[in-house]
Amino acid sequence: MKTICSHVILLIAANLSFVAGYLNIYLTISEVQRLLGVSAELYYIRNGNINNQALNFIVQIPSNINALYFTWEGLTDQPLPYAITVHTSNPEVLPPPKLNISYVGTVPKTTQTFLVSLPCSGLTEAEVDIKITINITLTNKNVTKLTFNRKKMCLLLDKSVSLIAQDSLLQLPNSASIFYIAMCCALLLMVMLILLVTLYYVKDKKCRSSGNTQPTTAATTFLAALPRNSVNASSYGSFIRMPSYSLIDERSKDLQDRIADLTVQRCRIRLSSIFLEGTFGRVYYGSYTNEDGAEETVIIKTVTDHASQVQIALLLQEGMTMYSLNHKNILSILRVSIQDHSAPFLLYPYKNTTNLKMFLQKCKVSSEGVHHTLTTQEVVEMALQIIQAMQYLHKKHLLHKDLAARNCMVDNELHVQVADNALSRDLFPSDYHCLGDNENRPVKWLAIESLLHKTFSPASDVWSFGVLVWELTTLAQQPYIEIDPFEMAAYLKDGYRLAQPINCPDELFAVMAYCWAMSAEERPTFTQLHVCLQEFYAQLTRYV
Ligand SMILES: *[C@@H]1O[C@H](CO)[C@@H](O)[C@H](O)[C@H]1NC(C)=O
Ligand SMILES: *[C@@H]1O[C@H](CO)[C@@H](O)[C@H](O)[C@H]1NC(C)=O
Ligand SMILES: *[C@@H]1O[C@H](CO)[C@@H](O)[C@H](O)[C@H]1NC(C)=O
Which residue ranges does the record assign to the Protein kinase domain (predicted)? Predict the structure, then answer.
């Protein structure tokens, strides 16, 4: 989570270690700018001194970058033989990368830039680890082994086409043009963000009293932080996908108008009371005075002033995933306000809704009293609404990747809305675990393949949906409470699953269990789930 900062430290305080023979290996200023968003050269070896800190650093490659450039030069007269190997953790998603120099040779005596190309296959969505190893034989015959670790989020391209074909709603061009469209959209997104910030700045200036002008560093730092890798890769993935699909959809006509619509001045927003509070995340109830001067009640997601740039960038990325979606069962973002020197405000419409997880827990606490007790029929009604939201989301080619009760909202009429997962890690820390890789994941909601290989598909959302229905029937108990997060993969592999909750009818439990099939192909689709649960619902209501 503190990766952007560590890049900077890494560039300044190089921790140099033993002599590796006279050569330089580094990334040029433009390459570092492209990968990390910092203007500096990054030396791995300078005059033979190895910068272990730089080598140990895992660089997150933005999903739109398909080639890495390394620059090197030999500084001695003796030849320095090298051997390079490149390994990827998931060749199906990212085929073995290619070099434009020979895999074995001698380090050139003049400055040379070589390229490692790593285009994703587009067949599956997954995070892939890339390991580039360079062995250099020194003049004393000792071999120095240098390992460069990279991570890349690969997005689903082809598969989404077949998915659409299935739903037969949209007619799409072939996969190659989709790729180009996606690239264009990534660019457009950048333009959009720049506009967003500029627009905001202009508006904000108008809004503020004229005597109070401050420099706008914060707004530009968001920009620097945003399109860069570094942050949680999976959220980056969905972030970049959002506008591309909106384009295919023609939802982003009048792009500028839309941005202008979304950005509002801070002075139009009033925070009233706190709704949820984490270590740095805050969710407020508040009000927003719209263009017509009317006041709307809103929920506002933001972070405290102590939040890092990365946390802010993550909030914006994750908060924008539901941008411009329009479905009664999806909570899409209403407005954004970015003000210098303080965290952005993300506004969502509020219709007497509360967080579903907290709602369920309240039901449990005082089921005999004022609060609501859920009947099977109500659980099925809620599940059906979530299914409709997910069908819509998948039709728009968005994967949720974090479907859970904590990321849904519900009102007193049990109208459910699926929301994004912005701030959930902070607000529901016990639902997320780090499995030693510095990435906080909803381990107990993840499908087996997401847990093991970080691959996501509509079928992995189906798995999480099964856990969500389990949460509905247990009034938000913690799933697999007795299982250590580190043991989860083994536990699932051994065939264990969540147990049938008390009072949960067999028919409903069968539906959940079906969602947890080991192989993604065996799981039901949301369309099948819809049919299935609707039948069950009809059965339940027949005798009422
Ligand atoms: C590099 O050296 C290591 C041992 O130091 C060896 O295992 C590996 O096979 C070598 N790689 C190449 C490409 O020669
Ligand atoms: C490899 O590609 C880089 C970047 O396109 C280029 O600068 C370099 O000259 C190429 N090297 C060789 C050996 O072709
Ligand atoms: C080369 O390797 C030998 C044995 O591994 C070691 O004793 C020696 O110090 C090394 N030389 C250098 C310059 O690292």
Answer: 269-537
As a whole number of Å, the CA-based R_g of the chain is 25
The tokens of 127 are what?
A: 């995070």
- The three-point CA angle 449-451-454 to 5° equals 70
Choose one of 100, 110, 111 to mutate for the ligand 2 pocket test, by most ligand atoms within 8 angstroms of C-beta: 100
pTM (global) more than 0.70: no
What would the mean pLDDT of 285-292 be, rounded to a whole number? 89
Q: Which atom belonging to ligand 3 lies closest to the Cα atom of 18?
A: 14
Angle of helix 526-542 relative to helix 376-395, nearest 10 degrees, comes to 160
Residue 264: is its pLDDT beyond 90? no
Q: Which ligand is nearest to the CA of 139?
A: 3
- List the residue whose alpha carbon is closest to atom 14 of ligand 3: 142
The span from the CA of 144 to the CA of 139, in Å, is 11
The C-alpha atoms of residue 139 and residue 418 are separated, in whole angstroms, by: 62
Q: Which ligand is nearest to the CA of 20?
A: 3
* Cα 142 to ligand 3 centre (Å): 6
Task: Select which of 204, 340, 402, 431 is catalytic.
Answer: 402
CB-facing half-sphere around the CA of 80: CA atoms within 13 A: 25
Rounded to 10 degrees, the C-alpha dihedral 472/474/478/482 comes to: -150
Sign of the alpha-carbon dihedral angle for 354, 357, 362, 364: positive
- At 488 the pLDDT is 95
> What is the Cα–Cα distance from 28 to 132, expressed in whole angstroms?
18
**For 266-284, what is each residue's pLDDT tens digit?**
888 988 888 888 999 999 9
pLDDT (mean) for 28-37: 81
Ligand 3: which atom is nearest the Cα of residue 142? 1
- Ligand nearest the Cα atom of residue 83: 1
Nearest residue (CA) to ligand 1, atom 10: 135
Q: How many CA atoms lie within 13 A of 172 on its CB side?
A: 31
Q: What does the pLDDT average to over 428-456?
A: 93
Given a cut of 70, is residue 332 above it in pLDDT? yes
- Provide residues with CB under 6 Å of ligand 2: 69, 100-101, 113-115
Say how many C-beta atoms besides its own lie within 10 A of residue 269's C-beta: 20
Say whether 402 is catalytic. yes
